[in-house]
Amino acid sequence: MTDIIRVLIADDHSLVRAGFRSVLSIETGITIVGEARNGAEAVALARDQAPDVVLMDIRMPELDGLAATRLITSDPRLRRTRVVVLTTFDLDEYVFGALQAGASGFLLKGAEPPVLIEAVRTVARGDALLDPGATRRLIQAYAGQQHPGPAPAKVALPSSLTVRELEILTLIAGGLTNAEIAARLFISPLTCKSHVSRILAKLEARDRTQLVVIAYESGLVVPGQPHAPGVLPAD
Fold it and tell me: Of 54, 89, 144, 160, which has the maximum CB count within 10 A?
């Protein structure tokens, strides 16, 4: 990422795009590189501009935000591009689908300007836009076996994950930062960061948000079932 954060706004409502543009374009270090009216335009502009951050509405014509997110996050040319999903309410199954597809987090459309600005800066730094409470509520609501039909198959964790890495993954799913994990496990922040980097590589995850999703989908953390942070759930 360069010193200037390059942002693409994708929403089918011109007033929403104008509102985001007016807030972000006056901020030092942020520039708007394009606006898209639908998912197809968002994907094309992302491939052309390679933005640092895409603000992506979910419900758009031609190609919805979920499909557009999947195309962007799976494109090797856009490895550094992060997608933030825009939604009107947090418990939205489409948002969970977007997180599964590789989005780095989600943001309510009614967020105050400082929240929007900080969200863009957070994701552009490479951090996940991960509000532990909201994200856990979302994942618990839709990763659990709440839908009709057969229960979805659990994601298998690779056997290469060590016991320590599984423990750290559990703590990440609990919303702890690297500093908090390091303090909890009596290791240095640098050691914790190294563990997290290895976990990301082994799970082929883009960021911490993806690690939270994987922790729930694998059964390492059970939706709706409390567990002591740092203690692996029983088999």
Answer: 54
